[in-house]
Amino acid sequence: MDDRPTSRRASILLRVALILGFVVLLGVTAKVFWDSEVTRKAEKASLEGRLASLELKVSSLQKVLETAQNENSALKSQMEGNLLTLQDIYFDALKKNDGLIPVWRDPRPGRRAYLTFDDGPTENTAFVLDALKAQKVRATFFVNGRPEWASLYRRIVQEGHHLGNHTYTHDYNLIYTSVTAYIQDTDRLDAFLSSLGLPPSRLYRFPGGAKNEVAARLGGPDLTGRITASLADRGYHFYEWNVSVGEGESRPESRLFPNSDIQKNILAQVKNKRVAVILLHDGPGHRETAIAVPGIISDLKKLGFSFEVLP
After folding, report:
1. Which helix (H) or strand (E) holds 111?
2. β-pair partners for 204
3. What residues make up the domain containing 131?
4. What's this model's pTM, rounded to 2 decimal places?
5. Phi and psi of 282, rounded to 5°?
6. Which ranges of the chain would DSSP assign to H, the alpha helix?
7. d(CA 260, CA 155)
8. How do residues 173-196 score in pLDDT, each as one tens digit?
């Protein structure tokens, strides 16, 4: 019996079965892929929706935060303003101990300039002293405690300038907590100057000025008034200023006041003054101030000012 037709039929059927199986497999695979793609797109759409929702929430929270910050800033400004207003009420206690009063009332004819330098000595002080020496001008230096510059304290005195007490540490958060804390820091500087063979100074200047928000906030709006009264009993008088260009504000080295601006702004402020007590700084980072000193002196001389140290 010939089995070849049967074998061919079996082979054909097998091929047909394989083809049908392959077609079915393709269909299943296509469906799986399609379902997967649909799922992926659905998940992507869901994630995008959730992301958009989160972005809205973040944006809303940022607005709430900005509002809170603005309100906090406004409250802080209001508080500082109230404290400074209270300081004004107590300012009578300050004025009677302010060394500027007799300086302003000086009946002598002519215009007088008092150059004052705060926060030194530093390497900048040496440049300032060189400029003062070249122009034969004397000044007043309200110094802090810097043992590494011991020779400069002596040089200041030896060259005819006056030393003023600007506290040893210049640390607002320490000195403005109480009258005792301020006086202790003042005494510390006096003791340091004595250790250098220099007489303690009876001139002083408040870091940040006699009217400042930190002193009012930490020690009360009458703190500096109480300090001046206590130190006056010991023969001290503080000195403010009536000319300032803001070059003493803390700022990055790259944003220092240019020396030309310092000179120009001082000139603008002194034009109508008979007595000018000029606030400058020779502390860390005030290189531009030191560079400006020769031009400041030259401008003041042209306006008819003579130069003196604070008495």
Report:
1. strand 111-120
2. 165, 238
3. 91-307
4. 0.72
5. -120, 20
6. 4-89, 91-95, 100-104, 123-135, 150-158, 172-175, 179-195, 213-219, 223-232, 259-270, 287-302
7. 27
8. 999 999 999 999 999 999 999 999
